Amino acid sequence: MNDNVIQKKKKKSPVFPIILAVLMIAGGIWGYRIWQHSLHHVDTDDAQIASHMSPVISKVSGYIAAVKVQDNQMVHQGDTLIILDNKDQLMTLRQAEAALGTARANILSARAGAQAAKQSIVSSRAAVRTSSAQIEAAKVNVWRTSEDLKRYENLIQDHSITRQQYEQALAAKQTADRQLEILMEQKNQASSQTGVVSAQSNATSQQIGITSAITKQREVDVETARLNLSYTVITAPTDGYVSKVPVQPGQFLQAGAQLFNIVADNSKWVIANFKETQLTKMLEGQKADIMIDAFPKHPFHGVISSISPATGSTFSLLPPDNASGNFVKVVQRVPVKIDFLDTKDPLLEKLRTGMNVKVEVQLDQIN
């Protein structure tokens, strides 16, 4: 009986070798398929959903009068987000408008002075022309009285006329000479007056140019004041969802301060950070399978739209400088933008910026 037991123990069961052989064949087939798959696909789980984010920035300084939005609220372009106290801007606008009114009054006064100067020039020139005509007439009178005096001088020597007649001719000649001198002086004065008025007219023209420039500057000041007043109402730059609103009424804002962001909901894409060694066969237009952690049972499909011209570390605040200190080689990652193919997929509206994604690119399929 002991011999039979020993013989049974010596017999080996064929089940274990069969199972082992099946497992080895299955493992070999699975490994071959993985190897074949890796030749035509590359994947990464270093990927996130991305979308446009518009910053809300205060363009003027001031105290917050009212906050019209809440966290995660949907807004449309042009909706009022924050209202600032506008008393300072209103006062600046009134001052600018008053300065503009003064400048316009000055230019009207300068133009009136220019018009008066032009009329004075016309009058002075007319006076000069009148004096010239009178001088010509006076010269004729001087010539006539001179000729009369010559004749009377000859006649008085012959005692053909009386002494009184000669003295009358002499007086007429002297009166004509004096009249000519007076007219010459009047012409000189009129000419001088014309020069003075012309100089005043030139000065007035320059004044008009200066006041015109000042008026334009005051108009710009008014437009600037109105623009700054409009900036006290901060509106949404685009449609989207408001992020966390960290401001409250009464808080003072500095000009240029970024308050919060508006996440646009009109477009979403995937930014996948592939290792530099995975980019060998990667091209724009290749299709990609997108698996989102939030929706693991819903497949998404995309296409590579662009590949970053530099690695992600290049755009960091402190990019690596391999020329200084000790060097440790680190595999770099390059951002790749992948657009969704089915833009009408209803689940796209549920995607949120920053969600984790796994991407698998099909190297041999180009859209």
Short description:
The protein has 367 residues and is of the alpha+beta class. Helices cover 47% and strands 26% of the residues.
What does this structure look like?
With 367 residues, the chain is α+β, with helices and mostly antiparallel strands. It folds into two domains: 167 residues, Beta Barrel (Elongation Factor Tu (Ef-tu), domain 3), CATH 2.40.30.170; 144 residues, Helix Hairpins (Orthogonal Bundle). The protein is built from four helices and twelve strands; from the N terminus they run H-H-E-E-E-E-H-H-E-E-E-E-E-E-E-E. It has a six-stranded antiparallel beta barrel with strand order 1-8-11-10-9-12. Strands 5-4-2-7 form a four-stranded antiparallel β-sheet, with no helix packed on it.
The main sheet comes to: 6 strands, antiparallel, barrel
Classify the fold: give the CATH topology of the largest domain: Elongation Factor Tu (Ef-tu), domain 3
CATH superfamily of the largest domain: Efflux pump adaptor protein, beta barrel domain
Spatial order of the strands in the main sheet? 1-8-11-10-9-12
Topology:
Layout: H1 2-10, H2 15-40, E1 41-57, E2 62-67, E3 74-75, E4 80-84, H3 87-157, H4 163-230, E5 233-235, E6 240-242, E7 252-253, E8 258-275, E9 286-292, E10 295-307, E11 333-340, E12 356-366
Name a few traits of the molecule.
four-stranded antiparallel β-sheet; six-stranded antiparallel beta barrel; 47% helix; alpha+beta; 12 strands; 4 helices; 2 domains; 367 residues; Helix Hairpins; Elongation Factor Tu (Ef-tu), domain 3
